[in-house]
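TA notes, week 10

Several of you asked for a full example with nothing omitted. So below is the full record: structure tokens for the whole chain, then the designed sequence directly under it. When grading your own attempts, check the secondary structure regions first.
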């Protein structure tokens, strides 16, 4: 008797796990991949759009049946997930399954900070977590000849912990290329004590030092309370204020309503077992930005595509075993890496085991052209894989 597996979401995690499942499961078993559009943007390339090294079309991901043989692609918006019943409701109907994988990602939620949505609409603030936002920020930077650029983290958690600091480095690099760097102050502001705090204080301080070396300010433990786009001013919970001429912002993130509505996690993010990625519901797994994976030190695993890709094999094994097939025992290592672009086609690289007790063991390697090329190679591989 054939089995049915439903995978929700066609980001890096969903695409990879669907492909791994097709490799593991018999041809008679159905794999349904549900996404609202099957038309997205490669996240690791967004800041290259901002820098002017890519266009949105260059890094568009539009998976086809050729790239996903043996997988049924269903264009639909998920409206309700019933994990205990392994049932999914969409705007085109309902789907029952023997195993369910949730890979729905995270959404931007600027309305969580008073004034931020209005500032984004008026373009006194610009986000860089979408292709159009990154392109808009690129154009704004070309016009910025003097004043203050602030890169603000407006809420926690958010996707790609390195991204705000990469944005500052690459914005400074573009301003330098335009001849405006000496006249524009660039600062980063975060509610965290250090950049990428999950990687540990040594890595965080090394990044602060790199920012300083490039003349970029770092303001820590500043939680924004309000954005006044008309006055171009930030108001913080401690009562302090900071002005800006252009605000590049990481908006607060939230899980999609359908993921938050599962009841699997009190805060909406879906808790998963650190080694198997299984949820609290039998036969249901989750990976990627919608999840909450708690590390041995109590901090969450960063929301990054490299971890979603690494989790795909683990989940494929777990699903196969759940369906009664022979498969390796699921075991997520927690090993991952990320690149921090500094401009000039140089990148640093952070790499290590994030599940190492009692705290992640991460090494930050010095910037080099080789690491920049590694990131370009990864980009090319993903685009070729999914756009076949």
């Amino acid at each position: 008797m054939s089995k049915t597996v439903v995978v929700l979401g066609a980001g890096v995690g969903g695409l990879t796990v669907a492909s791994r499942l097709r490799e593991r499961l018999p041809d008679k078993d159905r794999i349904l991949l549900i996404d609202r559009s099957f038309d997205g943007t490669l996240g690791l390339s967004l800041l290259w759009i901002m820098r002017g090294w890519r266009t949105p079309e260059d890094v568009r991901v539009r998976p086809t049946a050729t790239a996903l043989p043996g997988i049924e692609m269903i264009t639909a918006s998920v409206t309700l997930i019933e994990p205990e019943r392994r049932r999914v409701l969409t705007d085109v109907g309902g789907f029952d399954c023997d195993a369910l994988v949730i890979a729905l990602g995270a959404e931007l939620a600027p309305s969580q900070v008073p004034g931020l949505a209005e500032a984004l609409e008026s373009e006194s603030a610009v986000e860089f977590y979408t292709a159009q936002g990154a392109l808009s920020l690129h154009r704004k930077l070309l016009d910025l000849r003097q004043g203050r650029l602030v890169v603000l983290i407006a809420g926690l958690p958010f996707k790609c912990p390195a991204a705000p600091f990469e944005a500052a480095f690459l914005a400074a690099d573009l301003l330098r290329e335009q001849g405006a760097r000496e006249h524009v102050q660039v600062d980063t502001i975060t509610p965290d004590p250090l950049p990428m705090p999950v990687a540990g204080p040594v890595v965080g301080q090394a990044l602060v030092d790199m920012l300083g070396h490039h003349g970029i300010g770092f303001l820590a433990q500043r939680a924004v309370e309000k954005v006044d786009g008309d006055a171009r001013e930030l108001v913080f919970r401690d009562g302090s204020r900071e002005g800006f001429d252009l605000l590049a912002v990481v908006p607060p993130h939230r899980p999609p309503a359908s993921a938050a509505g599962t009841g699997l996690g009190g805060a909406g993010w879906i808790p998963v077992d650190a080694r198997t990625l299984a949820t609290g519901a039998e036969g249901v797994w989750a990976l990627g930005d919608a999840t909450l994976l708690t590390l041995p030190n109590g901090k969450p695993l960063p929301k990054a595509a490299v971890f979603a890709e690494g989790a795909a094999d683990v989940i494929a094994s777990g699903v196969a075993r759940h369906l009664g097939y022979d498969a390796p025992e699921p075991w997520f290592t927690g090993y991952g890496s990320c690149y921090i672009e500094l401009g000039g086609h140089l990148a640093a690289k952070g790499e290590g085991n994030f599940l190492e007790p009692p705290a992640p063991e991460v090494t930050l390697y010095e910037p080099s052209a080789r690491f920049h090329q590694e990131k370009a190679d990864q980009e090319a591989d993903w685009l070729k894989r999914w756009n076949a």
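The domain at 111-253 is CATH 3.50.50.60 (FAD/NAD(P)-binding domain). Use that as a sanity check on your answer.
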